[in-house]
Write a structure and sequence with these properties.
Chain A is of the alpha+beta class. Chain A is built from eight helices and 14 strands. The longest helix of chain A is centred in the N-terminal third of the chain and has 18 residues, at 94-111. In chain A, 48% of the residues are buried. Chain B has 23 helices and 29 strands. Chain B is globular, with a radius of gyration of 27 Å. Classes of the chains: A alpha+beta (328), B alpha/beta (771). At the A-B interface, α7 and β14 of A face α11, β21, α14 and α17 of B. The structure holds fe (iii) ion (FE), magnesium ion and zinc ion (2 copies). Chain B: Belongs to the carbamoyltransferase HypF family.
């Protein structure tokens, strides 16, 4: 296995190993909507493995709550409850476990989504790396809205709720001691209230929602483009990349479009409702700097392109394995 | 005169580049002049002649076919067989119209520069085509850029929308006329017309003669004009007009890369660059490439044409329109492709008007559509041999022969930058025209379009797809998605040296010296300074350059200062100490924070892929010598390093050292780098740069010598972009010759990544054949 960095290899792993073994389940979405007769629910689960466990802007506990809430929100669901499972490595300081659990509790209280059950396992030293968290989330769908990765249509606008690149650079900097910690903090936060406001304003005009986590905006849009059989055209000048992130990415040789986020979302929206959706986003703190960053186009090749500052177009693609230079 | 009793009959098959070059009319005139009876036709990819005559006459005909062939023809083989005399008519010689192709792969003939006879007519006031910008004949004119379908016939070109006038038709149908079956034949009465769109104007203000005059007027006044050429739009201005050049650089977003200069004739070229026989022959060849040549000290062109470089790219007019511009304006012109840097050259009128119109003082268009995009080709004379830097107009897509035919039709999709693709059917390898850098979305579209066009025209449906081993190349990603019964990955540097071997008809074993920037190796590290024991079917690495981390990956490639830091702070330990980080000079001037960050990145292995690259070592040395800490185009630092050494002789080498590691001989670059730093304190940059080239050449010869001793293989193939460096190539060739080794250099196939697809094709064909 060498699939840790996300991107195309992870997609292949899912498509070729995991999905077939699970009876061909389609794993395009991050959460599944289930029809239970009279009731409909949305279900998701996510495991959290992060080094370091504490980083500027958050920790693994907050991340485990926000990540799962956001996966529900991206299907247009109102999160109702969370389950939390720990895998702990023998020797993990109890103090750390206490801090992380407090952080889980704080995040869940702030989001208004309670942790209702859970499980704890301890493995021997070396059997895990400190602590792994798995959160499962249950939500109820919003009436008259069904955002889906398959929903994008040519002509739709692409909206971004806030700046990109913060989480990934903050984690990398903290892990490797690169010194950007003072200026760059993770953006981890729950987005379900933002989504609720967007759906109230745009309803079924909100065609697709995605939180661009691992693989960044590039991955999120590539997945939407493929699932919806469309192309996406971004305008590089309109992408909100905070200057410290831009500087760090430049020095580290990273593409901000490929860096992970935990507190923003990308929405593909019918142009008719876009102004209302944008207003609704801007009225909330987590969407205060929402912007239009591109549009959906017809493209049989389902590509994502970005208009550069000089007016040409570059291909936006997903990382394949480790990032190795393609320049000769 | 042959009589029936003494004569016999023969069939002469002429193979090579013989279609679309005026070969049949030439045979007709020759046979008629010799009083021979028979006929000539295009058959598949060759020309077939059936002829009656006495033995001496038949022998003379064969000789003269070769000796007097049209300039663009290239005869590879004559096959003479006896025929029963009765099958050939006793009198008269006929040209038989092309039949349907007989199984062989049809060929798309490359475009041909205006021939001398047509140039004479162009400037002859008495001629009916006097100053007609689209004249041509069976020996010259557009081919690949007007062909819509094969076989090559007017009805299947973009000229089909111009019905011939009666005068043109008469010439076209007369076997004795040099315009017999000149498919793009035209005159002012029936052919394409120029149209002049002043700045921003959608509709033309002038057409025909007035359009040309208006464009020339704009250029003469120091303006910038877009001109629809043969394979795409071009941007044209006076080569001494600084203001126009500044606009041109801004319009193309091309701050530093040199521009090509078109001059009227060889004499005018010689005023800019001293010409030897090789250079003159290349400039005047029917492909009319841009030729990179050392410039004269006071060459009368603006500094902005090729800032700080001792080399100029020069070429001669190759279409009647270019001849008229050069003759009327009587001065060197900058003629460069009509695109923004990195984008494909514009070929369609609407986008060209929208994009180029606002940037220029006007667009000189015409109404003959361009069916395929062909940039100007670029050549360079290296060690007295013509080599190809960019293979496009005039060369592509003429097929090349593979040493091992492929049992299945295949498509090789090339690299990520300077992309070309190669389509193979049997031993026929169609190396397509230069596409460009695939990271640009429009260029990626052009890549798709080129593949569609080549496969359609040649009626080849490849069921095997061949690609680079780097999974991230957009060409590799295309290969993964294209339906195919089989996909083959070919290692980058194996493809480089296989391209050289295949061009020279070798199957191996040979020693491959692959020097370039970066390619993915089979051990997961990046390669670029490699000695391979190779054949077309496989390779084993037998020598390499020492590794250094590239802090920030591609960021290090764009900023040689970071590559230099990578060498000084993190080079692979090979037993010699790293030099101290200089407190002064280009590295000393870097922000302290950046140096510390890079140190940290290297220590922690953050986006610091290790590379054993020759090209990156050139970058690092260029930086240490103060030749620039950042680059605006690929290979710029290395180009500056070669330029810096210009004029210096073959100076003694800086220190170099080989060590043995894991069964390979490894060139340790650290002693050389230490010497660069020490020597540059006293000696001029030029001297250190020259001595560095010598060191790399000596280290190369030593690596090859070890490999030859260990393997007994005495044939060497050079490949990879670093061998565009004339000085290094000459030094390496000299030293390998002194070791009694036979060394091959690519000539027709680009040594840079433009040749990868051909190498991939050669490897795949051999692998599929099974040895
Ligand atoms: Fe290469
Ligand atoms: Mg998730
Ligand atoms: Zn001619
Ligand atoms: Zn005519």
């Amino acid at each position: 296995l060498g699939h840790g960095s996300g991107g195309q290899l992870m997609a292949e792993l899912l498509r070729e190993v995991i999905a077939p073994a699970l009876g061909g389940a389609e794993l395009v979405e991050d959460a599944a909507a289930l029809d239970l007769g009279p009731a409909r629910v949305v279900l998701t689960t996510d495991s959290f493995v992060v080094t370091p466990r504490f980083f500027p802007g958050g920790d693994i506990g907050a991340l485990a709550v926000h990540g799962t809430i956001n996966d529900l929100a991206m299907r247009g669901a109102r999160p109702v409850a969370l389950c939390l499972a720990y895998v702990l490595e023998e020797g993990l300081p109890i103090e750390e476990l206490r801090r992380i659990t407090t952080s889980v509790a704080d995040a869940s209280r702030a989001a208004g989504v309670p942790v209702v059950t859970g499980d704890t396992k301890v493995v021997e030293r070396g059997g895990a790396d400190g602590i792994y968290l798995t959160t499962t989330g249950l939500g109820v769908p919003t009436a008259d809205a069904d955002p889906s990765a398959r929903g994008a249509r040519p002509g739709d606008l692409v909206l971004l709720s806030g700046p990109i690149g913060l989480h990934g650079t903050a984690i990398l900097s903290a892990r490797e001691g690169l010194g950007f910690e003072a200026e760059i903090a993770s953006d981890t936060r729950p987005l379900h209230r933002l989504v609720a406001a967007m759906l109230a304003a745009g309803g079924r005009g909100v065609h697709a929602l995605r939180d661009p986590t691992r693989g960044g905006l590039a991955s999120a849009l590539t997945e939407i483009a493929a699932a919806s059989a469309v192309g996406v055209e971004l305008v590089e000048a309109d992408l909100p990349v905070p200057p410290p992130v831009a500087a760090a990415c430049d020095l580290l040789g990273l593409d901000p479009l490929q860096v992970a986020n935990e507190g923003c979302l990308v929405a593909v929206v019918d142009p008719a409702v876009a102004p209302a959706v944008l207003d609704a986003m801007r009225a909330r703190p987590e969407g205060a700097s929402a912007v239009v960053v591109g549009r959906v186009v017809d493209d049989p090749a389902h590509r994502v392109r970005a208009r550069t500052l000089v007016g040409s177009h570059r291909v936006v693609d997903v990382l394949v394995g480790e990032q190795l230079p393609r320049i000769c | 005169m042959a009589t029936a009793t003494t004569s016999r009959a023969a069939r002469i098959e002429v193979h090579g580049t013989v279609q679309g070059v005026g070969f049949r009319p030439f045979v007709y005139r020759l046979a008629t002049a010799m009083g021979l009876a028979g006929d000539v036709r295009n058959a598949g990819g060759h020309v077939e002649i059936r002829v009656r005559g006495a033995d001496p006459e038949l022998a003379a005909l064969s000789d003269r076919l070769v000796a007097e062939a049209p300039p663009a023809a290239r005869i590879s083989r004559l096959l003479v067989t006896d025929l029963p005399a009765t099958t050939v008519p006793e009198a008269g010689f006929r040209v038989v119209a092309s039949g349907a192709a007989t199984g062989a792969v049809p060929e798309v003939p490359p475009d041909l520069a205006t021939c001398a006879a047509c140039v004479r007519e162009l400037f002859d006031p008495a001629d009916r085509r006097h100053r007609y910008p689209f004249l041509n004949c069976a020996d010259c004119g557009p081919r690949a850029t007007v062909i819509e379908d094969l076989p090559y016939d007017r009805a299947r070109t973009t000229m089909s929308r111009f019905p011939m006038c009666s005068a043109c038709r008469a010439e076209y149908l007369d076997p004795a006329n040099r315009r017999f079956h000149a498919e793009p034949i035209a005159c002012a009465d029936c052919g394409p017309r120029l149209a002049w769109h002043p700045a921003g104007a959608d509709e033309p203000a002038d057409v025909g003669v007035d359009a040309l005059a208006a464009a020339e007027d704009a250029i003469a006044r120091g303006g910038l004009v877009a001109v629809k050429g043969i394979g795409g739009y071009q941007l044209v201005c006076d080569a001494s007009a600084e203001a126009a050049l500044t606009r041109l650089r801004a319009a193309k977003h091309r701050p530093g890369k040199p521009f090509a200069i078109m001059v009227g004739d060889l004499r005018a070229a010689d005023r800019l660059v001293p010409l030897d026989e090789e250079a003159a022959a290349l400039l005047g060849s029917p492909a009319r490439p841009v030729v990179l040549l050392p410039r004269r000290d006071h060459a009368p062109v603006a500094a902005a044409v090729a800032p700080n470089l001792p080399v100029l790219g020069v070429f001669l007019p190759y279409s009647p329109l270019h001849h008229l511009l050069l003759a009327d304006l009587a001065r060197p012109l900058v003629v460069t492709s009509g695109n923004r840097s990195g984008e494909p050259i514009a070929t369609e009128d609407r986008p060209a008007l929208t994009r180029l119109g606002p940037l220029t003082d006007g667009v000189l268009a015409h109404d003959r559509p361009i069916t395929a995009r062909y940039d100007d080709s670029v050549c360079r004379v290296v060690a007295g041999r013509p080599t190809t830097v960019r293979r496009a107009r005039g060369y592509a897509p003429a097929p090349r022969t593979l040493p091992v035919p492929s049992p299945r039709p295949l498509l090789a999709v090339g690299g990520h930058l300077k992309n070309t693709v190669t389509l193979v059917d049997g031993d026929h390898a169609v190396l397509g025209p230069h596409v460009g850098d695939l990271a640009d979305a429009d260029t990626l579209d052009a890549f798709h379009e080129t593949i569609r066009q080549l496969t359609r025209l040649h009626a080849v449906d490849p069921d095997v797809v061949v690609h680079d081993a780097h999974p991230g190349y957009l060409s590799s990603q295309y290969a993964r998605r294209r339906p195919a019964s089989r996909r083959l990955a070919v290692q980058h540097h194996h493809a480089h040296v296989a391209a050289t071997a295949a061009e020279h008809g070798l199957r191996g074993p040979f020693l491959g010296v692959a020097y370039d920037g970066l390619g993915l190796g089979d051990d997961g590290t990046l390669w670029g300074g490699e000695i391979l024991l190779a054949s077309l079917t496989g390779y084993r690495r037998v020598g390499r350059f020492g590794r250094a981390p590239l802090p920030g990956g591609e960021a290090a490639v764009r900023r040689p200062a970071r590559t230099a830091l990578g060498y000084l702070l993190g080079a692979e330990p090979l037993g010699s100490p790293a030099p101290e980080l200089p407190a002064d000079g280009p590295l000393g001037r870097l922000p302290r924070g950046e140096v510390e960050l890079v140190r940290r990145m290297i220590d922690r292995g953050v986006n610091c892929p290790p590379a054993s690259s020759a090209g990156r070592l050139f970058d690092a040395v260029a930086c240490l010598l103060g030749l620039g800490g950042a680059v605006s185009y690929e290979g710029e630092a290395a180009v500056r390093l070669e330029a810096a050494a210009h004029g210096r002789g073959d100076l003694r080498a800086l220190a170099w050292r080989l060590v043995r590691r894991d069964g390979l001989w490894v060139y340790d670059p650290l002693p050389t780098l230490r010497d660069v730093l020490t020597a540059s304190r006293e000696a001029p940059v030029a001297e250190v740069a020259a001595r560095f080239h010598t060191a790399v050449a000596e280290a190369t010869a030593a690596l090859v010598e070890q490999a030859a001793a260990a393997t007994g293989v005495r044939t060497v193939c050079l490949g990879g972009g670093v061998f565009q460096n004339q000085r290094l190539t000459r030094l390496v060739l000299d030293r390998l010759a002194a070791l009694d080794l036979t060394t091959h250099l690519p000539g027709q196939v680009p040594t840079n990544d433009g040749g990868l697809s051909f190498g991939q094709a050669a490897v795949a064909a051999a692998v599929l054949t099974g040895g």
